[in-house]
Design a protein that fits this description.
Number of helices: 6
Number of domains: 1
Distance between the termini: 38 Å
CATH class: Alpha Beta
Shape: globular
Structural class: alpha/beta
Number of strands: 9
CATH architecture: 3-Layer(aba) Sandwich
CATH superfamily: Vaccinia Virus protein VP39
Length: 204
Amino acid sequence: MVLVDNLVKEGWLKTPRIIKAFSKIKREDFLPEEIKGLAELDTALSIGYGQTISQPLVVAFMLELLQPKEGDNILDIGSGSGWTSCLLAEITGKKGKVYALEVVSKLKEFGENNVSKYNFIKEGRVEFLCADGSEGLKEKSPFDGILVSATAKKVYPALKEQLKIGGKMVLPVGSSIFEFKKKGEEEFEEKEYPGFVFVPLIEK
């Protein structure tokens, strides 16, 4: 696991639970057969349908911002290959729940099949839905954390509403990653981290 060691050494991975998840959940399990050999590269890779599996450095950075904890209720938007959903399920543990939203039905199936390798679907820790992520998932809210893995046109009000007070949302808008911490019903602490590239979030 040279990739994980490098991410730790370079300071992208810091939290023991997150490092452990990166070591256990193998990126190659979430790649199309023909590019499994590229899993250790720190770069985004195509998974078809105009979508990618994100660069490991970026996933590490976003998860470190989100700081998911054991037992958290998490919404994972733009789940794609299922890698982030699986990492989140490992981090939040047996009492946690991850709702993975993917608008492209074939990718939803691909992600679901990949996560099945880890028994998390059977155990009820991850649930996949084919849905427009910009609307969130009101019926399963409020969420302790919301992770968006594709660049949004704006910060969607529905997602802010569905966040628990004290919860966090990490999402890309344009070429920046934003971190929102919910302090009160209408009050948010916001931080911006510029200089990232993502595929656009597909809306219905």
